[in-house]
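Box S2. Input/output pair 1.
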Amino acid sequence: MAEIWKSLPSWVRNIVIPIIAVIIAFNVIGFVIGVVSSLIWFAVKALVVVGIAAAVVILVKKAARS
């Protein structure tokens, strides 16, 4: 690997490789943020559904008493 690195022209080592590394880093960070935000959004939706279901159960119990 060191031989390949040394055989590259200096402009590739100093400009092209860092740009590629930054692009890959942004893609990985974007993927991680996307996964985390979708998991959080799923949890919020699940909590809303559970809340609505609890409200329906409470209302049905109140309606059954009267």
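Box S3. Input/output pair 2.
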Amino acid sequence: MLWWLIYVAIFVASLYALVDAVRTPAQAFPAMDKQTKKLWVGLLSVGTFVSFSAVFTSMRFFVFIALIAALIYLLDVRPAVRGVGRSEGPYGPW
């Protein structure tokens, strides 16, 4: 049961990273010297699929690779590209 909860948490993190990558403008990635949006959306899509299959099937071998990809995006790429291309005021989005 504990492992199943871990796999669900990895799926939620992967899905959140995927949705955030899709919503981020494509020009923000090269502007901050990161990989392209297509690469990140592809990696996170595969990671989300793998983590989803870990929750509902017995395919659990690559789930931690999916976690690593999601964590790299959330902890390194997302903070760098977050403000690029979005029209935000000094106190947040208007």
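Caption for Box S3: Residues 2-23 form the longest helix (22 residues). Strands lie at 88-89, 92-93.
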